[in-house]
Design brief:
about 775 residues; alpha+beta; Ribosomal Protein S5, domain 2; nine-stranded mixed sheet; 30 strands; about 35% helix
Length: about 775
């Protein structure tokens, strides 16, 4: 026991402050002061002198002693060791090039501390004496921002002298050759070398930010406490026995980082607390940080004295008026930083909807409740826990490949939220949530995420759960819920039809479309199939640029008469989505704007008669149109329109041709190979076609008849959704035809007769020609 008189913050402490033989505990006037391993919280009303002393004793300020210095010559000398060759190389890589995100050092060191506590707890099951008379199992982090020092202390299993050499002097047990080989390959491939911790080298991440690292550790298996020290640029380290009574700990490890000049910002308490909340918030042991706090109190303030008259001698006396003010008294104390029980580790039945929503808002900085959530645990060959959410509003664009919507944890330690389709496909990138796995390594590189069998299994199950969650929204009694979802994320699911063939059966029931019978409301494919006619063989659809144009297209005429419902695809992604699905519930998708439409109502005798009657007319029209059409057929899909232009079975529809033309840049000739040759279908029941049939038989070379064919073809292009090659020429032909049709109609009427002229003859039922009135005026007088 040494008797010391100390000056702390220029305040002299009384000599009754005695260091206690019990490690980590001091006494002052009978009051017990705890070290970093067992520090209770103090209320603001506690003794201020005690608080100030604790601040000085724990923050690590310099002490000046009036007593004689302890002779250190009796202390055993430090032993110097050379690093294993691979460690030396690894240290150089870590310090200079391996890792760009330096802040992960804290995650790695806290994870190591948590592992030490886990190991102690495991061993104590068979050896309870390991926990006897020891501190609570926790992690405590203290910073000195002025000197750039971070101290991380755990009360875990600790290490013996030999374990220090084996664990911190070599990495043979962690697969050195494999680590260095993987590192070399990743550097040659120019990919992210996020490998620290993957091969058990997490401790060396301390040198990312430190010039010097000291590890003071005490194992229950050893009577001595040892200190391991090394510098970042050195190829050796030292190990010595700890002889300073003030630095002894009952059990565990104290890691001290002496930060580099450029990295001293990590020593701010607020920065440490922020990093812990991000990376280590759900570590299974409590993590305390040394934080500045304060409490308010009333203090007296002296005012100017006032004169008060007294009785008797009459001499006034001065009286001081008392006044108080509120001040904030600052002190330092331990503060719990993490939540030791993550919400996803609880049983779903124990968690309320409000708790799920609160966790979602807090984790992802949202202000609206999610549309849905799913909390599940997957067991078997791969085990992980997860909570997934569907946000109420869309923040990501469908073209965004990278999002920060999924937070991956390994053993409750945050690993990353920067993914590019490894856990969720791009079309489900809007799903937010957390995933916690015990099977992945603590530090997961991009290569592992892409190649790991565990990750592939996790992805498959996460996608399945996401679909179940979305299906739950679609089955909600409140139809508005899914309408809101579809408005935000409908395009994402359509993208899934194109990119994920394996999940077509899960995506298809979630799709929504307009139809010819839905009164401008979206319907599902299930609703369409349920309302199909018994004789209907397929799911019919047509694509257009607007709801009005699709609904009034001539292709629908016969189907409307038969009562068949037709899906109206007006979104640019709709048509591609359905063509990728190909079928739904054994019903194939059929585009009614393409050739060979089978409506199941064929009358073979009637069709044969029509083809025979109009075969000559079809050949005549084909000869006139030439290469503009592949052939001319008699149509079975028209009822009121004279003709229609349909696309080839395996070519682009009119809508797809329009979209591809709009997306092409520069020369569009490269698109010609996909532009289908059109089929010109005529309606034999229409009056115009009947007259053309007569013209073909009477005078096939009549210019007016040939001109009518041209106009009929080009106007059918417009009504069928195609764009005429020469709109100006078409408009000129229409103007000529209008002039011919209007000739002689609404002609100028004769001017009324003047008073000096003879009165005009009364009008008859048939107006006389104007020439007759001028040439033969006498007849008019005779009539009179």
């Amino acid at each position: 026991v040494r008797l010391l008189t100390l000056r702390v913050a220029n305040q002299s402490l009384p000599p009754n402050w005695v260091t206690n033989p019990e490690p980590g505990v001091s006494r002052l006037g009978g009051k017990r002061l705890f070290s970093v391993l067992a520090a209770p919280k103090l209320n603001g009303a506690e003794s201020l002198s005690s608080l100030k002393l604790r601040e000085s004793a724990l923050v690590g300020r310099r002490y000046e002693s009036s007593a004689a210095a302890v002779d250190s010559s009796d202390a055993p000398p430090a032993e110097k060791f050379e690093y294993q060759a691979e460690v030396n190389r690894l240290m150089d890589l870590i310090v200079h090039s391996l890792y760009s995100n330096k802040e992960v050092f804290l995650r790695e060191l806290v994870s190591n501390a948590s592992d030490a506590l886990d190991k102690l707890r495991y061993l104590s099951v068979t050896d309870p004496d390991l926990l006897k008379d020891g501190p609570e199992l926790d992690i405590r982090i203290q910073t000195d921002k002025d000197n750039g020092i971070i101290t991380i202390t755990d009360s875990g299993i600790g290490m013996t002298r030999q374990e220090l050499v084996d664990s911190l002097g070599t990495i043979a047990s962690s697969g050195t050759a494999k680590f260095l080989k993987t590192l070399k390959e990743s550097q040659e491939a120019n990919v992210d070398s996020n490998l620290i911790g993957q091969f058990g080298v997490g401790f060396y991440s301390a040198f990312l930010v430190s010039d010097k690292v000291a590890v003071s550790t005490k194992s229950p298996k050893s009577e001595q406490q040892y200190v391991w020290e090394a510098e970042a640029e050195s190829n050796s380290y030292t190990i010595r026995e700890e002889t300073d009574p003030e630095k002894l700990i009952p059990r565990g490890t104290r890691l001290t980082l002496y930060l580099k000049r450029d990295d001293k910002g990590f020593a701010h308490p607020e920065r440490i607390q922020k990093l812990l909340k991000n990376y280590s918030q759900f570590v299974s042991f409590p993590i305390y940080t040394w934080q500045e706090k304060g409490f308010t109190k009333e203090v007296e303030v002296d005012e100017d004295p006032a004169e008060v008259k007294t009785e008797g001698d009459g001499e006034p006396k001065k009286e001081v008026k008392k006044k108080t003010k509120t001040v904030v008294e600052k002190y330092w104390d331990w503060e719990l930083t993490n939540e030791t029980q993550p919400i996803w580790l609880r049983t779903p039945k124990e968690v309320s909807t409000e708790e799920y929503n609160e966790f979602y808002k807090k984790t992802f900085n949202e202000y609206l409740d999610p549309l849905a959530s799913s909390h599940f645990t997957t067991e078997g060959e791969v085990e992980f826990r997860s909570i997934l959410y569907v946000p109420a509003t869309k923040k990501e664009d469908i073209t965004d490949r990278k999002t920060k919507n999924i937070r991956l944890y390994v053993k409750r330690v945050f690993i990353s939220d920067d993914f590019d389709g490894e856990l969720f496909p791009r079309y489900l990138s809007f799903v937010k949530g957390v995933v916690d796995s015990n099977d992945l390594p603590l530090n997961v590189s991009r290569e592992i995420l892409q190649e790991s069998r565990i990750v592939r299994i996790m992805r498959k199950r996460l996608v399945r759960k996401a679909f179940d969650m979305i299906l739950g929204i679609s089955c909600s009694e409140n139809r508005d819920d899914y309408e809101a979802f579809w408005e935000n994320y409908g395009k994402f699911l359509k993208l899934g039809c194109m990119e994920d063939k394996e999940n077509h059966k899960r995506i298809a029931p979630l799709l929504r479309f307009f139809s010819s019978q839905s009164n401008e409301e979206l319907i599902s494919l299930d609703e369409y199939v349920e309302s199909m006619k018994p004789e209907q063989k397929a799911i019919y659809y047509i694509a257009g640029d607007s709801l009005s144009s699709a609904k009034n297209a001539p292709f629908l005429e016969k189907l409307n008469e038969m009562g068949y419902e037709v899906l109206l695809l007006i979104d640019p992604m709709d048509e591609v989505s359905l063509t990728n699905l190909n079928s739904y519930k054994d019903k194939s998708f059929v585009d009614i704007s393409k050739e060979d439409l089978d409506l199941g109502d064929k009358n073979e005798e009637r069709e044969k008669e029509m083809k025979q009657e109009y075969s000559q007319t079809c050949d005549w029209i084909k000869k006139r149109l030439g290469e503009r059409v592949a052939r001319v057929d008699v149509s079975n899909r028209l009822s009121s329109s004279p003709c229609v232009l349909v696309a080839a079975k395996f070519g682009w529809s009119a809508n797809m041709e329009r979209l591809m033309r709009a997306q092409s840049i520069g020369d569009t000739s490269s698109l010609d190979f996909m532009r289908s040759r059109k089929v010109f279908e005529i309606n034999p029941e229409h009056e115009i076609i009947k007259r053309l049939n007569a013209a073909c038989r009477i005078n096939p070379d009549d210019p007016e008849a040939l001109k009518a064919i041209d106009i009929l073809f080009e106007t059918s292009m417009i009504s069928s959704g195609f764009t005429p090659d020469n709109p100006t020429d078409l408009s000129g032909k229409i103007y000529d035809m209008m002039s011919t049709a209007m000739a002689g109609k609404w002609a100028s009427q004769p001017q009324p007769a003047q008073p000096s002229q003879q009165p005009a003859a009364p009008s008859s039922s048939e107006p006389e020609p104007l020439e007759a009135e001028v040439v033969e005026p006498v007849e008019a007088g005779q009539q009179k």
